[in-house]
Amino acid sequence: MTTMKPSLLLLRLITTLTLTIILANIDGCHCKIVQFIFGDSLSDVGNNRYLTRSLAQASLPWYGIDFGNGLPNGRFTNGRTVSDIIGDATGLPRPPAFLDPSLSEDVILENGVNYASGGGGILNETGGLFIQRFSLNKQIELFQGTQELIKTKIGEESAAKFFQEARYVVALGSNDFINNYLMPVYSDSWNYNDQTFIDYLMETLQGQLKQLHGLGARELMVFGLGPMGCIPLQRVLTTSGDCQDRTNKLALSFNKATSKLVNSLSTQLANANYRFGDAYDVVSDVISNPHKYGFNNSDSPCCSFGRIRPALTCVPASILCKDRSKYVFWDEYHPSDSANELIAKELINKLGFLGDAPTPAPAPTPYVDGDVAPSPDD
């Protein structure tokens, strides 16, 4: 019987261990925890930029003036979205837009994906006047395609683990009212009353959230609606300039029903931690008492055509307010970076999110007379 030399034995052990590690990683991946975001213009980070026929666009200056290089980036605000800020606070990477040309399997594994689309809603018919937009059903369909890519990349078992450990945000609903039910050009406005329309939304949303659970979503947050009757667009459509009470009551009814639905699904679905994020009260208080929160204006947009209202989007010819950080609303529809930060902090506090945040994007700086809208040639 021959004995193996110690050096040869050690070499074989090292070789065997190396092969074991290689084989173990052929169908696997040490993946990060990332976010998958489903939403509308409040969460869109660039998908609509690539929907060339869409009328819901944030592709012109002054959008994005306080984000990165100051050029439009697809966000419908001057700076960050609420999802950006919550992700930063919880230490999660900011997911790129699904339609971003640089998106790849490696980028998805490192950062997740944002499917949000300006004009999109819970219902397929919502936002039809914008021509192109991703409804929530379409966003979920795109997510299914993403899953197939990742399964091919890292194998089914590792992909299942990756998607189950990920964080999910669903933030839609305002367009289902403002760009559907409350507009007589849509059939939903005469096929339903306030209560039956809420029921229709909840039935649809329940199916969508269950579908996401079937696709692996275990840690999921659904955002509620703010006082959408107080956005500048709704105010300017009244003779008094006040908030539209019925629209706000619809938002409250939606929030109540959605909270009940989310809590119910969290107990019914296996291993589901579904939570409802409601910032209605604090946003309402900000609008009623702006100075209490450091704002000077809560009823008109920072970016507008002055007395020509409503100007539905912000464009290079628009007039900017003197100090963007003092305005609750950026344009006729959307909050400013400062307001988004306040909303995000409210949700973080209510839901008990913790985490070490990377350095966030710079907050808005006061407008200086003589500024001109940035262009790609600058």
UniProtKB/TrEMBL annotation:
Pfam families: Lipase_GDSL. GO terms for biological process: lipid catabolic process. GO terms for molecular function: hydrolase activity, acting on ester bonds. Keywords: Hydrolase, Lipid degradation, Lipid metabolism, Signal. InterPro entries: GDSL, GDSL_Est/Lipase, SGNH_hydro_sf, SGNH_plant_lipase-like. It comes from the Eukaryota. Residues 1-31 form the signal peptide. The keyword Cell membrane does not apply. Coiled coil: none annotated. PANTHER family: GDSL LIPASE/ACYLHYDROLASE FAMILY PROTEIN (AFU_ORTHOLOGUE AFUA_4G14700), ZINC FINGER PROTEIN. Belongs to the 'GDSL' lipolytic enzyme family. This is Putative zinc finger protein. It comes from Tripterygium wilfordii.
